[in-house]
Design a protein that fits this description.
The chain is α/β, with parallel strands linked by helices. It has two domains: 18-66, DNA polymerase, domain 1 (Orthogonal Bundle), CATH 1.10.150; 75-376, Aldolase class I (TIM Barrel, Alpha-Beta Barrel), CATH 3.20.20.70. The chain has helices spanning 18-27, 33-44, 58-66, 162-175, 199-213, 228-235, 252-258, 267-276, 299-309, 334-346, 370-376, and strands at 75-81, 87-92, 98-106, 131-135, 139-141, 156-159, 185-189, 220-224, 242-246, 285-291, 314-320, 351-353. The chain has a ten-stranded mixed β-sheet with strand order 1-2-3-4-7-8-9-10-11-12, with helices on one face. It has a two-stranded antiparallel ribbon with strand order 5-6. Strand 11, helix 10 and strand 12 form a beta-alpha-beta unit. Helix 1 (18-27) packs across helix 2 (33-44). The longest helix has 15 residues, at 199-213. It is elongated, with a radius of gyration of 21 Å. The two termini are 25 Å apart. The chain binds iron/sulfur cluster. The site of iron/sulfur cluster (SF4) has 12 residues, from loops.
């Protein structure tokens, strides 16, 4: 299989947008309002089978099934619940590949903030959480090879389709009995994979999630390791999440060591793209920075970050390394993390330390794909 080949599943309805469904029903000689009924059934009601689209006459359901159509929702293969309320889902795709998706409730009954810009706090009362964030994957594995990331150990298997990206969200919403927009849910495209190396499917998924599922784009953040040409493209999108850049180093030497992609797009190129990015009113670019003990976590590194980001509307999320087998770095002490944070805050950069979520179930940043490694490696 080609590493970047997108799985081409035939006759799956999940992932089709309004225009494509209008064409589909026109091809069946059905009135155009059937497209809206399909949209409702797939994206709002999150139905699992065509037989359950009750707004369709039986004959039409049978025709679609007879023509080989299915909705194509991915399945929850496993579910790991953390003591902090985080749930890590192993999601099985139609070709047997798996990805991971993480549910992070916050507020009453869930841990407070993981540092993502969660926006306002919806009062969901009896549910036991105030707001929640879903961390979504964009590829099976990842090609970017960040040296501190467990996902990188797998390499990339393939891109996810738009339907598979949306399907992860729908599965988690159903499992948690949550329905946007009434329930305030944030999405972060920070799971397995580099979204900007699967750009078209990622953007199509975003549009479906905004227009059909009902999650506002202001509640979404995408993180890139720094695929500079796509940062430019992303800035031109009419509908887009907020932008986060995975920085992780304060100079080219360290960044190239930690993120080989820095050889292709250097820090200067990346920061120029960030400065050129057309921000909306009151928007800031988030810079993610994984702190590795003795590698990139000195206060001199923090001062270099201040220089890089000077004058750029930004905020910084610091993540003390989430350890894992096969990762040759150590987690810095809380004192080193605070010292780093203080340098940035004193320079006027809003800087947050993200609390690890679900470390006990390998759901924290950089830890995804642990389950598949266990499943595929007899040595573990
Ligand atoms: S940190 Fe993100 S971009 Fe880097 S290897 Fe892991 S999943 Fe890929």
């Amino acid at each position: 299989m080609q590493p970047y080949m997108t799985h081409l599943a035939h006759n799956l309805l999940l992932g089709l947008d309004r225009g494509e469904l209008v064409s589909l029903v026109a091809g069946l000689d059905e009135p155009a309002y059937r497209a809206q009924q399909l949209l409702d059934g797939i994206y709002r009601k999150r139905l699992e089978s065509i037989d359950r689209i009750s707004t369709f006459p039986q004959a039409l359901r049978s025709k679609l099934v007879g023509d080989g159509y299915t909705i194509g929702l991915p399945a929850v293969e496993k579910r790991f619940v953390s003591i902090d309320g985080t749930v890590r889902y192993l999601i099985a795709l139609t070709d047997g590949q798996t990805v991971e998706t993480v549910w992070m409730p916050e507020g009453d009954g869930g841990e407070a903030g993981d540092g993502t810009e969660a926006g306002d706090s919806a009062q969901n009362g009896p549910r036991g959480w105030d707001r929640a964030t879903i961390c979504v994957s964009s590829q099976v594995g990842c090609a970017v090879d960040c040296q501190f990331c467990l996902t990188a150990l797998l390499g990339v298997k393939r891109n996810l389709t738009a339907g598979e990206i949306v399907g992860q969200v729908l599965r988690v919403l159903t499992d948690q009995n949550v329905s946007p927009p009434q329930d305030r849910v944030n999405l972060v495209f920070m799971g397995m994979g580099e979204p900007f190396l699967n750009y078209d499917n990622f953007i199509k998924a975003v549009r479906l999630l905004v227009e059909e599922v009902g999650i506002a784009e202001s509640r979404m953040t995408v993180s890139t390791a720094g695929i500079v040409p796509r940062i430019h493209d992303f800035g031109l999108e009419a509908i887009r999440p907020k932008l986060a850049i995975s920085l992780n180093a304060s100079n080219d030497e360290t960044r190239t060591r930690l993120m080989p992609i820095n050889r292709k797009w250097s820090l200067a190129t990346l920061i120029t793209a960030a400065r050129d990015f057309p921000l909306r009113n009151r928007e800031r670019i988030t810079f993610e920075y994984v702190l590795l003990d003795g590698v990139n976590d000195d206060t001199t590194n923090a001062e270099e970050v201040v220089t890089l980001l000077r004058g750029l509307p930004s905020k910084v999320n610091l993540i003390a390394l989430n350890p894992g087998p096969g990762i040759d770095f150590l987690t810095p002490t809380a004192d080193r993390v605070s010292a780093f944070q203080n340098v940035l805050i004193k320079s006027g950069i809003p800087t947050f330390v993200r609390r690890p979520r679900g470390r006990d179930i390998f759901a924290a940043c950089g830890q995804l794909k642990r389950t598949v490694e266990i499943a595929t490696s007899p040595a573990l």
